[in-house]
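so my prof wants the structure for this chain in the tokens format not the other one, which i didnt know existed until like an hour ago. anyway here's the sequence
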Amino acid sequence: MNPPGESPAPGDRVGVYLCECHSSGLCDRFDFDDLAAFAEEFPETVLLRRDPKLCGEGSLQQLKDDIADHDLDRILLATCAPDKHLEEFREAAGEAGINRYLVNAVNIREQISSIHEGDPAKARAKARDQFAMGMADILATRASSKVYALVDETRCSGCEICYTVCDKDTISMVPDPYGQVKNVAYIDPEKCWGCGVCVTSCPVDAMDMTVYSNDQMEAQLQAFLDRISPDRTNALVFACHWCAYQAADAAGAAGIPIDPDFRIIRTLCSGRVDPNWVLKAVSRGADGVLLMGGKPTKCHFKSGNLRTMTRMKLIKLLLDQMGLDGHRFRVEWVNPEEPEAYAQVVNEFISDLRQLGPNPLMSRDTDYSHAKYKG
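here's what i got, hopefully its the right format
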């Protein structure tokens, strides 16, 4: 039998930590008072701490003490790029009794303060939205020992699609213990590298992830949809952790200006993005969705991006059939060392969405049914 998913964390007591590091001046342009006030509006926030340098040794000890003193079971950080210090926070929280995956970060430095200096009002709005998406994510996260895929054997049809798309020799077909079908998929959690391509490929929704789960991803998407505003272009970007998201961090480190009218969801691989998420986003009001991964041959998970290319081809046709224009969805490839390319892709996408006009499903007072992309 496939190993069961691990149990959810016991409660919803979230400690929120804002890193106000001013060492390079980047955070001097960030409105911490506004974000702090917003964070305290969440009933799950039982502790809010503002720290001038959250990655310092004393601050990590303070985090451990807070976990014990305030009975925290989740930690949400507003800080710099997750690949810089997130592991340190997770290790410290682990020593204090919190599962490492119940600690996560919202990137307010490279992804907001250093690229949206020209529009403070929209930077504040984006910080609130990304924090809300981060809170939705951490509340939906389950404790786990590692990131790996899961199979619900009672739903598996034995189609073998997951077996054929796995590049890691992680999946095997074994006799169905319930006798519903001949064989079902079995995933070796020790071999699985957590790309999620198999999960997205499953035609009967019998698969999930321990981390970057369907609940987590859909919670972030719903938080984005709940905060759509008629006062801006509402673009959603799915960015793979290993390539596009790192290019985004590099763009922030370089201070490359980027239009603030987008929100970002980080995935481990572009192949983890479910076409249903794209369709849900656009059908419920997003002006457009941009999916970004690494270039062919550069994918961290070998062929994850190639699977994405194949899977996403029909979405433009479906959007056209829905009367929404297929140009509201785009797939682009950038490598980690290409921050200028990342910024250019995002800026051009938002510009193109403005050219199309607001999503007609959210703009009922105006007829946009004949709006066409002019590029």
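also thought this was worth mentioning. The mean pLDDT is 90.
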